[in-house]
Amino acid sequence: MLPVVNVLHQHSWANIYTVPVVEYSGSVKGMVAGKGDWTGRSTTDLVRELVRSGLDVDRGLVDKLLERAGEAIPYLAEILDEDKYWRLDEEAPGAGWAPISALHLLAAIAHPDGLEPILRVLHRRPDDLGDWLTEDIPSILGFISGSD
Question: Which pTM was predicted?
Answer without folding.
Answer: 0.73
